[in-house]
Amino acid sequence: MPSAYLLVSHGSRDPRPDIAMQQLAQLVSQKLPSGENLVGTATLEVNEQPLHQQIQDFAESALAYGYNYLKIVPLFLLSGVHVMTDIPAEITLAEKALGQDVIIDLKPYLGSHPDLEKLLMPAMANIKVEASILLSHGSRRSGSQQPVENMAASLGAIAAYWSVLPNLESRVKELVARGYRQIAILPYFLFTGGITDAIAKSVEALKLQFPEVTFQLVPPLGASAELADLICDLSKEEEKVFG
């Protein structure tokens, strides 16, 4: 049956992530089969409407175009509370409001895609440093950081976290103590926004704290055709069907 697609992100008061989301939705739409390329965006937080209402509104709009099957892809990099609890709960509320008119299919979250680390490899190949730090947002949910640790190891980097320990400064201190003087920092975030601005400020402070060290800050993932490919892959995976 024809499917519509809804990309769900965290949401931000900074306008840049929303602009990037719209660009990404267009890229995904271009890669989907003709007649099945209706793609929308929604946010879990920082929106006038709760997520379940955004889902309901998009589903009703899609239904008017002949789409009665809605695939939801969470664009989150970690399997924290938002992915495991909040989004499924919001989908359940939307499904109750929609009844049997629309089937909602929750797809795996973006960070679960096994090829995601390949999007970081070009940046790694273009920098010449002695050590690298993969900086993720982090989550207090038990076990949610293991994929980041695994990805860091496969990239030849070490993991650090913005919201939990070990943080960026502590990791830099470890590397400096071990004699490294050229350090790359790879923000494991989707788009430029408030947090990546704060990371840049932290790196400037680290430069003052460790003047003997050269730091290279890599941009976040960003909207790209390669990222759109991964999202299309996830839309084919089985997860949980509501309805």
From TrEMBL:
Keyword Heme: no
Residue spans crossing the bilayer: none
Sorted UniProt keywords: Lyase, Metal-binding
Pfam families attached to this UniProt entry: CbiX
One GO MF term attached to the UniProt entry: lyase activity
Top-level taxon of the source organism: Bacteria
Record-linked SUPFAM superfamilies: Chelatase
Gene3D superfamilies: 3.40.50.1400
Protein name as it appears in the record: Sirohydrochlorin chelatase
The species this protein was found in: Trichormus variabilis SAG 1403-4b
